[in-house]
User: What shape does this take?
Amino acid sequence: MEEKGSKGTTHTLIRNFLIRCSFCRKKFGDWNSSAPYTFGCGHTICSNCLASIEDDCCPVDNYKSAISVRTLPPNTCILYLIEVAVPANAYETMISNHGIEYYQSMILMEKLVCVLNPNAFKKINNQVKPINLAKSLERKLISLASCQLLEELGRKDIIKYIRKLGERILLELILLMKSRQQQVNELFAALRSLKCQLFGPKLQEMIMRLLYNIMNEGERISRKTLTAYLIHQLDGRFKEESKNISNTSIGRAIQLLVRGSCFEVIPRDKGGSLLKLKDEIRNYEQFRQKLDAAVIKVAFEYDVHLKVEKWSLILYGSTDKSQYLNSMIDKLRPACLLNSRLKHISCTLNEEVGKPFQALRKLIPQFCRIEMLNPDDEYDLAKVKEMLEVAVEILYALLEYSEHFGKAKDQRQENAPTDVVVNPPDIITLKLDDPISFNTLDNAADLSSDESVDGTDDLIISPVPSTPLKDGINRAVGSAVAISPQVN
Assistant: This one.
């Protein structure tokens, strides 16, 4: 199979995960000698390895097959993906041995996974369509291709992946209906409502490292003192962003870290509190992960939808961290995510007019059916076939609307510069590597009490030269330093 072009990554996934026997690692091929056969556990082996099995157990993990391995049908989904011809009488044998519902279900699975290979898509659907799926969606379809319809465990896995497909397709549809500007606006509006601040990648990184270096040995420091120290250290380093660096904005950046459980908040006898880095944070990477998780949790809480590549751009200034952030998003994803996205798209569609949106409204009942699925329940072949029909309908709708909305977006953005990060409306537009801030309006000299910042310390910022961090903080804030020694 050809492995180049825009689908190169998908072809690599298929090559590594699907086209080789899970046991002998030889490539699948001819129907008679090396066709793929899938167990309920998800492992797929070639006909040569299958012939050597005597106890109906998967040779990879010793999973005991619920049916005789001699009656397992070849996995035609994989054969279509690797472009191996399926004999004309194969489906007649499939119907004879396993029934019409199995045959119909396999045809539906083929229609789902064929979108991973343009040649297979053309063969099954008799049409050529540009296909550009999110990698997360591709991985779910690849996993679906390795499920065994004849076993209960395999059917449960299919239901599980249909739910995940539904979640992802909903996200893709939501993102298609929004511009990049709207997506980022929603995130910063959510942060603003919590009186939190996220700066651009370079400035945020500098703030995080300064905070970690000054607090990683158990110091207890007031928020006001930390704010003064950060402003002193940042002075002159970010000229383009200097007007956005204020007591208020830095205080809100600290508040975001407090919200992310980076610090212990220790009350003081005379009022106010001190911050201490939590003992569980043992290195800078863990400290940074806490910030990333805090921002992603805000997005989930406020129903903000962003692609993982966009997350990487906002938090790190490039897409290099996409894989790491995708893993974090998967861990933090709430159980009711499908329901949340369903409500979101329903509200959005109610505000839109036009034929594309009318057609999308008709899909809402199908998503509701998926939302009601419980992967822990038992499902017979008839029910699985019914839900596969739903999955095919919503996936092909996504392909259609991706083409429609994608063209509309291209027209809106064709003249937009490629090196610009899209920011909320009250921010100047900056390049990818420059800091981002949504707070250009609040440049107050003092932190007000409603910003969750202590008001008990008198700040005296003296113009002293740069000094080592631990020593420099005392000079940076003059004589009124609120650092408490660590109590043993």
Observations:
- Residues 1-8, 410-488 have pLDDT under 50 and may be disordered.
- The CA atoms of residues 83 and 296 lie 40 Å apart.
